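can u do me a favor
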């Protein structure tokens, strides 16, 4: 049987990594054999852990590309029950799509988490494609830093910087549509 793909998306500070960790802890509790991956570009807090903004963490493999990952792990149902991937927006689109597909076809379940949009409000390509491939989707929301209402957008507090500029509360904050503008 093909594995199932669940994807968790939302703006920054919505709690995506916390949702992913919840599933990781649950899988651990059930003695599942798991693999946790994140792109090595994301070294905001730690190189070999995924860490939430409120300091919960789990060990992970920091990947440069999928060849790296496949050298490290053999994706067979006998060895691995579940794969967790954080910050999917930073991964190569076609390569990620191809490899997630291979893993699912082995009968391994996959849970992905990441941003669905950048601070300009444009969809991240890899997240969009993974959402299209997903069996289950969870979109979660933060709270607007100005008014406290539901936030669906990531607001960049300073002008400029590249699209993939990695940062935390010093650069970005969650905002509602009323208090957000693309930048
Ligand atoms: Zn607001």
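np, heres the sequence
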């Amino acid at each position: 049987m093909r594995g199932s793909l669940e994807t968790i998306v939302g703006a920054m500070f919505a709690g995506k990594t916390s949702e992913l960790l919840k599933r990781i802890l649950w899988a651990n509790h059930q003695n599942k054999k798991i693999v946790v991956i994140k792109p090595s570009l994301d070294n905001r807090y730690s190189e070999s852990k995924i860490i939430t903004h409120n300091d919960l963490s789990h060990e992970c493999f920091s990947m440069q590309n999928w060849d790296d990952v496949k050298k490290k792990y053999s994706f067979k149902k006998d060895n691995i029950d579940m794969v967790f991937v954080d910050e999917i927006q930073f991964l190569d689109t076609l390569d990620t799509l191809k490899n997630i597909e291979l893993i699912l076809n082995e009968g391994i379940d996959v849970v992905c988490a990441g941003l669905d949009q950048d601070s300009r409000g444009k969809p991240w390509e890899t997240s969009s494609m993974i959402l299209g491939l997903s069996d289950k989707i969870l979109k979660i929301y933060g709270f607007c830093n100005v008014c406290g209402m539901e936030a669906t957008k990531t607001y960049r507090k300073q002008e400029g910087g590249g699209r993939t500029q990695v940062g935390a509360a010093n650069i970005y904050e969650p905002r509602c549509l009323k208090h957000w503008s693309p930048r």
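The two ends are 44 Å apart (CA to CA). hope that helps!!
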